[in-house]
Amino acid sequence: MALQRSDVEKIAHLARLGLNDSELPRITDALNSILGLVDQMQAVDTTGIEPLAHPLETTQRLRPDQVTESNQRDRYQAIAPMTENGLYLVPKVID
Amino acid sequence: MHQLSLAEIARGLADKSFSSQELTGALLSRIKQLDPQLNSFITVTEQQALDQARAADARRAAGENGALLGAPIAHKDLFCTNGVRTSCGSKMLDTFTAPYDATVVAKLAEAGMVTLGKTNMDEFAMGSANESSHYGAVKNPWNLEHVPGGSSGGSAAAVAARLLPVATGTDTGGSIRQPAALTNLTGLKPTYGRVSRWGMIAYASSLDQGGPMARTAEDCALLLQGMAGFDAKDSTCVDEPVPDYSASLGASLQGLRIGLPKEYFGAGLDPRIADLVHASVKELEKLGAVVKEISLPNMQHAIPAYYVIAPAEASSNLSRFDGVRFGHRCADPKDLTDLYERSRGEGFGVEVQRRIMVGAYALSAGYYDAYYLQAQKIRRLIKNDFMAAFHDVDVILGPTTPNPAWKLGSKVSDPVAAYLEDVYTITANLAGLPGLSMPAGFVDGLPVGVQLLAPYFQEGRLLNVAHQYQQVTDWHTRAPNGF
């Protein structure tokens, strides 16, 4: 089932991507073309096949629960768009 | 001096034929002179390179040795470099100066390599033509009207044009091997987990792997030696000993069993490329290899599965670019949602937006089983095919790409047509296997690559086969006109 413009608007919002109205027809076409390619998968019989998450099927390593990083807040905030008193600034969230 | 391979540079520095400062200066002026035609660099780090070269010469004068000490390199612009812009080819990170070095960058710097700069790439490594970069397309030095391949297109064009001997690349669906094939280079994607991903800006975390790009297998061996190894900071890096890759280059190919998958020679392959691949097989047979036809029946499902898994992981990885902590931020956001949506809408280019949306859709409620889970099951079928094939053969050989480099702009409007160019390379990423592309001839003056695949952690075998092939052929020595 092909995606409609309203589906694309919903996905864009889920992904927090602000798209111009003028781009919507083009991106809708592109997504439908990509999903057409991807839908070829549905014909493959995968009954009883376990999904493969890591090619070597290793499990996550654990490390001792110790502090290994030093505090570099000033350094990391130097590249932030907007900070004040060591805090990241965003528009007001709660009135 | 620009014609020298990494191995020749190592010898020249060791016997004091030239210093790292002389070599670095010569290559920097060559980059200045020639790169405007290619656009292969996003950032040239001239002062830092000269400082590193001086330090390397001092280490040598103090008695230190090492194949990489004082040798030049450039890094694909998704490896974080402390104090240097790391853009990932995106407007989103145009002003991002990395506050630390990627493990690969740190290891090579410790070995004494001199970083000449950061190379152009498809935005966030999403592309096969290097046309999605915010900094403009890269040109193929073999024909300036054609693409160099991607996503490591800047690294490929720079090394092919003799601007420097080696560069790093990354490969998520073919992004080292495909541009290597299209520019007459040798490029290696290691086993998943062989090289640390720490400090590599993530595209699809279960597929991404960094590796070397060079003009010879011998140089790939030297560079991989410096890149590979366990890193506790990458949770999927594998703790396996790193063999001496240069030591195994000279091994005989007598009795080597090569598998030719029949699916690699079907419809869609340029018949002139098929002829060159068969000619390379003949050369390997003369060296003692035995050839057998094999089958990888699930190969045809790789592209659909990849275009679910990679976008799904990308949509998750790229959620960190929110306009708050680093990267592009829109002007005058009216609320938090507006800040996110406009920063991301302005910061990401069209191909990145497409893939984020495909991924967000595939992971959204109600679609997970049909898309992501089904793709991960197909991934196992593909791995099983390889495991069965490697019972009977030591390496698998085929074309790296179905076509030579295409014209700039010719596939921009049809993303699916460009995706199909990765048909032979994607399976190695899905299965996590090592793969190498090596030069094997020309079609209409454009390079053609042959791909070799081996079982896990057998990078040494791939380099050995390519090196032996390069002892009896001279395709890899050909240089593009004007470079």
Task: From the structure above, extract its key features.
A: 95 residues; mainly alpha; Histone, subunit A; two-stranded antiparallel ribbon; B: 483 residues; alpha/beta; eight-stranded mixed β-sheet; 15 helices
Structural class of chain A: mainly alpha
What would you give as the CATH superfamily of the domain at 5-41 in chain A? Answer: Glu-tRNAGln amidotransferase C subunit, N-terminal domain
Instruction: Quote the beta fraction of chain A.
Output: under 5%
Secondary structure: helix percent of chain B: 25-40%
Rg from alpha-carbon coordinates of chain A:
22 Å
Element string of chain A (H = helix, E = strand): HHHEE
Subunit structure (chain A): Heterotrimer of A, B and C subunits.
EC number (chain A): 6.3.5.-
InterPro entries (chain A): Asp/Glu-ADT_sf_sub_c, GatC
Catalytic activity (chain A): L-glutamyl-tRNA(Gln) + L-glutamine + ATP + H2O = L-glutaminyl-tRNA(Gln) + L-glutamate + ADP + phosphate + H(+); L-aspartyl-tRNA(Asn) + L-glutamine + ATP + H2O = L-asparaginyl-tRNA(Asn) + L-glutamate + ADP + phosphate + 2 H(+)
What does this structure look like?
The complex is a heterodimer of chains A (about 100) and B (about 475). Chain A is mainly alpha-helical. Chain A has a domain of about 35 residues: Glu-tRNAGln amidotransferase C subunit, N-terminal domain (Histone, subunit A, Orthogonal Bundle). Chain A is built from three helices and two strands; from the N terminus they run αααββ. In chain A, a hairpin with a 2-residue loop joins strand 1 and strand 2. The longest helix of chain A has 15 residues. With about 475 residues, chain B is an alpha/beta fold. Chain B has a domain of about 300 residues: Amidase signature (AS) enzymes. Chain B is built from 15 helices and eleven strands. The interface between A and B is large, with 53 and 75 residues.
